[in-house]
UniProtKB/TrEMBL annotation, chain A:
Stated name of the protein: Acyl-CoA dehydrogenase
Acyl-CoA oxidase/dehydrogenase middle domain sequence ranges: 131-224
Top-level division of the source organism's lineage: Bacteria
Taxonomic source organism: Marinibacterium profundimaris
PANTHER family for the chain: ACYL-COA DEHYDROGENASE, ACYL-COA DEHYDROGENASE FADE34
Names of required cofactors: FAD
InterPro entries on file: Acyl-CoA_Oxase/DH_mid-dom, Acyl-CoA_Oxase/DH_mid-dom_sf, AcylCo_DH-like_C, AcylCo_DH/oxidase_C, AcylCoA_DH/ox_N, AcylCoA_DH/ox_N_sf, AcylCoA_DH/oxidase_NM_dom_sf, Mycobact_Acyl-CoA_DH
Residues covered by the Acyl-CoA dehydrogenase/oxidase N-terminal domain: 7-127
Phylogenetic classification of the source organism: Bacteria, Pseudomonadati, Pseudomonadota, Alphaproteobacteria, Rhodobacterales
Annotated GO MF terms: flavin adenine dinucleotide binding; oxidoreductase activity, acting on the CH-CH group of donors
Acyl-CoA dehydrogenase/oxidase C-terminal domain location: 238-391
Family that this chain belongs to: Belongs to the acyl-CoA dehydrogenase family.
Gene Ontology CC annotations of this record: plasma membrane
UniProtKB/TrEMBL annotation, chain B:
Gene3D superfamilies in the record: Acyl-CoA dehydrogenase/oxidase, N-terminal domain (1.10.540.10), Butyryl-CoA Dehydrogenase, subunit A, domain 2 (2.40.110.10), Butyryl-CoA Dehydrogenase, subunit A, domain 3 (1.20.140.10)
Family listed: Belongs to the acyl-CoA dehydrogenase family.
Cofactor(s) the record lists: FAD
Acyl-CoA dehydrogenase/oxidase C-terminal domain mapped to chain residues: 220-340
PANTHER family the record matches: ACYL-COA DEHYDROGENASE, ACYL-COA DEHYDROGENASE FADE28
Keyword Flavoprotein on entry: yes
Molecular functions (GO terms): acyl-CoA dehydrogenase activity; flavin adenine dinucleotide binding
Species this chain originates from: Marinibacterium profundimaris
Domain Acyl-CoA dehydrogenase/oxidase N-terminal: 6-117
Coiled-coil ranges (or none): none
Entry keyword set: FAD, Flavoprotein, Oxidoreductase
Protein name per the record: Acyl-CoA dehydrogenase
Amino acid sequence: MDFSDSPEEAAFRAKAREWLDANATLRDGSEKVQDHFMARDADEVARARDWQARKAEAGWAGLTWPRAFGGRGATPIEQVIWNQEEGRYAVPPNAFLIGIGLVGPTVMIHGTEDQKTAILPRALTGENIWCQLFSEPAAGSDLAGIRTRARRDGNDWVISGQKVWTSGAHYSSHGILLARTDPSVPKHKGMTMFLVDMSDPAIETRPIRQISGGASFNEVFIDDLRVPDSARLGGESEGWKVALTTLMNERFSISVGRASGGARAEELIDLAARVERNGRPAIEDGEARARIADFIARQRGLEFTSYRVMTSLSRGEAPGEEGSIGKLLLGKLRQEMGAFGMELAGTAAGVSTAAGDDTARWRNEYLTAPGNRVAGGSDEIQRTIIGERILGLPPEIRVDKNVPFSEL
Amino acid sequence: MNFGFSEEQDTIRETLARMLGDHATLEVAHNRLDSGEGFDTATWSALAEGGWLGLAMSEEEGGSGMGAVELAILAEEIGRCLAAVPFIPVLCMAVPALQSAGTDDQRKSLLPGIAEGRTIIATALAEGGGLAPDTVSAKVTRDRLSGQKTPVTFGAEATHALVAATDEEGTPRLYLADLSASGVTTRALDPVDRTRPAAEIVFDNTPVELLPGSDPAAIKRLLDGAAVLAAFEQIGLAERVLALTTAYARERHAFGRPIGGFQAVKHRLADMFAKIELARSNAFFGAWALASGDNRLPEAAAVARLTALDAVQFATEESIQLHGGVGFTWAANPHLFLRRGWQLKAELGPTAIWRERLLGHLADAPRTAS
Ligand SMILES: Cc1cc2nc3c(=O)[nH]c(=O)nc-3n(C[C@H](O)[C@H](O)[C@H](O)COP(=O)(O)OP(=O)(O)OC[C@H]3O[C@@H](n4cnc5c(N)ncnc54)[C@H](O)[C@@H]3O)c2cc1C
């Protein structure tokens, strides 16, 4: 057990720092609470893309990806080091989480050689931006209930249906799409995964406004989208297996990626020192102190949990269900910290008096966190995953398990 | 960087688990609770015979020269089987205190006895519900100690005590008292966990020896180290209670299926698991900080302790709940863990103390990304 850098790791860190120093500026106070993780508009996407391209050129993108696909072939621990270092700088919000974190690993496992060459390097440089077309109005937690249909037509497939909550669809060039290809078998069995071009006129994207005010996700309407069979990822009717790879990597990316970013519990110490509660600085208030200390303890635990996961990875173990721990605990922690940050303003809780003031920042944290608790599998679903796959408890009753989808 | 155990360390754990599993069974724990006998001398002797009590002593001190991480493994296995042994006071406090603040003579006269299991040094750092160095009213004048220390875990079973008292200048220091010396009155108390006996010790002009390197900072460091190791004991305990509750939830049927199939039950077990893993991650960092002498030890110890306290309390209380009526019975296992959990909480102080230590430490630390 060693939380310090080995000589090689220290050299890697120094190199990373040197490059970051030359190419980015350190974060200052104003950016302490990052109010959004995903890029939201064209301007942010352009900045994100520029940053990604520079990183890719210098060999800092897709660190753990094999060199053959444009990666650096670095160790998971080097990825941790890079995340720590990059986290110190004011860099644009990410637009590549899905392409690099979800689609890339899925294509590496299930893709053909042609798909790997066509997709992976461009995802890495940010040339292509990917979105995840899984959820539908009637299929979220119960993803296998999707209704979007793909029908064979000669050597092509024709896809029609509706997706929803698709993060970044409005600026993505490509999407990974789960569709039903055989409704005559039970729901988990008749699905197939496709890789689609979002610029096709058969796809219409409409942004949906969120409680945080912004619109980073969308509804996506697909009307007779024609794709060649080479757009199929994995076998016909094997879409569920492919989707599980994506979902596992999603939980993993969220828990490992977010743990080192976002609002820091220590910032609440500073804020509590500046505001009053019951006639004295809030930082002298017993309840405030207790809450802050507990937030810090939980946040540290999440950080170190993500390091433990990376250690398992570096020992050659596949990303397991541990991603569910971070995924489960992170959203609630953010929500509680956001609420507390707002409450520190007393009777002015939630009332922002100037753009970007403390209230605005913590309010935004508070209004963004509910999305964390649902996206990538809700808290409840994570608990079920932990209960069944880690603790070995009996599975949920599934009344629809053996019934053909068409008869549900 | 590497946040896991090595293969050798995994082997140590297996050996320890086997040995402790033979001696410290839950049946033994029940018998001790019933009889009020407390100290499990058989397990302590077995640990001594296996060389485990000298784990963190150098070879010339009579030990095997391992470090804090190995001690953490021992802590976790002791926690897992609820062994009624003075592991924290003796191995996590007295030994490091002697090593870091004692004299050569003190080390020579005491460490071999500790390694052989003959010498039991209780640590008397608590009084008035608080902990040294913040709460100390016992005093030493001309090498004579007067004052009352309570509760002292294994105080009645110990041969010696490491006592926090103020010196003639009013500075809290650590003193070594031979409990067979004059002016020592020991009275057994009634702790929530009788398998971890506690006593009140009154010193009246008792001859003591100063640990010359001890000062308030050293006392704090000692507590930080002990808190990290205790967190491992707490995690071992919590994991065991989770395992036995999970097993029960798989077996016990209601409404035609195992209760573990009901989400209210399944999800609570998942919450236990997540809390334990969070504590474990913090404890790992603590073990490393302790082993490497990193200056973040105070922070690491506090976060490890806070999350471990939370995990244990949640896991033990909910274990009783998920066992239903059986969980409320004296003969069932869950309350053994609940009781031990409280005793581990009392010994180094509850959340309130450690939250303050954490904030006190962070108050001056730079808070922008470092
Ligand atoms: C910010 C955000 C971004 C997203 N981005 C994407 C994206 O890019 N691509 C994509 O495909 N999807 C995306 N999603 C969708 C997300 O995956 C789904 O919202 C999520 O899986 C929940 O599905 P649902 O919304 O249909 O809710 P439902 O499944 O209807 O759930 C409603 C409530 O019921 C609970 N529930 C459901 N089933 C169970 C059960 N078996 N046991 C216990 N409780 C249960 C849920 O936990 C939840 O509290 C995003 C969602 C959000 C909020």
